[in-house]
Amino acid sequence: MTQHSSKPTITAFETSPDRGRGLARDMRVRWALEEVGQPYDVRLVSFAAMKQPEHLSRNPFGQIPTYEEGELVLFESGSIILHIAERHPGLLPAAADTRARAITWMFAAVSTIEPIIIERQVAILNEGNEAWTKQRLPMIEHRIRARLGQLSQHLGDAEWLDGAFSAGDLMMVTVLRRMPGSGLVEEHANLAAYVARGEARPAYQRAFAAQLAVFEASSAS
Ligand SMILES: N[C@@H](CCC(=O)N[C@@H](CSCc1ccc([N+](=O)[O-])cc1)C(=O)NCC(=O)O)C(=O)O
């Protein structure tokens, strides 16, 4: 396996529309790097720069985050976190079966839970003025409630989704944080406590402070 030794560089919004609330997906990569104690640099990109050839060479979809480490360039936050987790202890268990289950939860976060939450965000932010949104939003929230109910049932009284904290929990916590103020996660006390446990982790706090500092600097200038 090729070992990369240089300090990685990630990309993040120059001025994040999340106003420093840690909702953009660089937050989960920052958190993963903090969990494994890997220092990193950040290249801040404007919305315009994200669609220019230089950034498109990092991510053909013109989005953040990306991850550069020596000659390696990655995009897709989940893939970046898996790469980090494969090279540093602290995000995936060593035992093969437990590790495979933790990776399953990474996929569940982005493929089963996140899409319907993004649907809701799109319905509210991009389609809020459409006549049909009034009918559609309750249907979307019904589907979100169904998934959160299943997740709550699985979690029960456990601290994390499958034994020790893993990249699966990191991904899931960042997904559940994407509905601030909706009250949907808070309908399940165990899910709200689960998110709070993630947010209480020192690595999360360092990552959150770092992305907030970027926003505060950008809004001060
Ligand atoms: N599947 C990709 C998705 C990456 C992605 O959606 N990136 C977004 C930022 S994180 C998503 C996001 C954006 C804004 C908020 N917010 O609260 O304002 C939250 C999350 C982006 O670059 N958008 C700019 C563009 O597409 O032109 C991944 O996981 O890396």
UniProtKB/TrEMBL annotation:
Pfam families: GST_N
Domain GST N-terminal: 13-92
Superkingdom of the source species: Bacteria
Coiled coil, from the record: none
Gene3D superfamilies: 1.20.1050.10, Glutaredoxin
PANTHER family: GLUTATHIONE S-TRANSFERASE GSTA, GLUTATHIONE S-TRANSFERASE-RELATED
Name of this chain's protein: Glutathione S-transferase family protein
